[in-house]
Amino acid sequence: MNLEIIIHPDYVSQHEAIIALLLGFDKNENFVTKGDRNVIKKAGLGQKVVNIKSFKKPNFFQSIVYAYVRKSKAERSFEYAKLLTEKGINTPAPIAYAINKKGGIAESYYISAHLSYDLDFRVLNHTPLYPERDIILRQFAAFTFKLHEAGIEFLDHSPGNTLIKKVSPEQYEFYLIDLNRMKFGEMSLEKRMHNFRRLWLSKKMINVMAPVYAKLAGVSETEIHMLMSKYSKEFQRKVNRKKLRRRK
Question: Known InterPro entries for this protein (predicted)?
Answer without folding.
Answer: Kinase-like_dom_sf
